Predict the structure.
Amino acid sequence: MGKMWHIVASLFIFYSISIASVPDKCDGFLEKPVEGSYIVCENSILAPLKQGEEFSIIADNEKFKIFLSLLEKRNEYAVRLGFVLFRVSDGAKAEDLAISIGKLVNYNPELLLSLFVEEKYSDEDIKFVLLILGDKYVDNFSMQRKEVINRINILKNIKNEKLSDIKAKCIRFLSEEEKELSPNIIEEEKNKKGEQNGLKKKKLFWFF
């Protein structure tokens, strides 16, 4: 039994070392985000899930941070790869990707719409990317509404007829979100007035 366990343990260690020694095919992209390294990385991510879990940018927190920085720098291949990564991620990382990809509407809205179509995003995914705005917007409904309206206006200015269908869909999703925000904004304003009145009463109290 002891000998058999030793053999099994040795095989496990050998297998682990072999797996760990396999180079991550996305490392080259993080070092040099160009077309060639993008294709290699994309193919790696779209390979069987076992490989994706072990070696993709999503699995390594440090690599994921580097990738997000490439997105923030508006590297086109990072943006394209972000669309691929979003579909194979979940949780906080999917949210981080959605926030970064959604910002594309402010500086290259036609690319955003084109990639929605090219990558065959579902309505649910499109809404997620368009409507997840980031931490600074949390619990600030006025700011959320302002950004949503900004995105609507930007999309309305797109003249490319080939994108008319996806453009109309995105504007509809954003417009629906704006309507849903209205009751929250009214409540937000009431709370602000209540707080202001409370402060005034306190000042009067201390004055007398």
Remarks:
- The mean pLDDT is 80.
- Residues 23-90 form one domain.
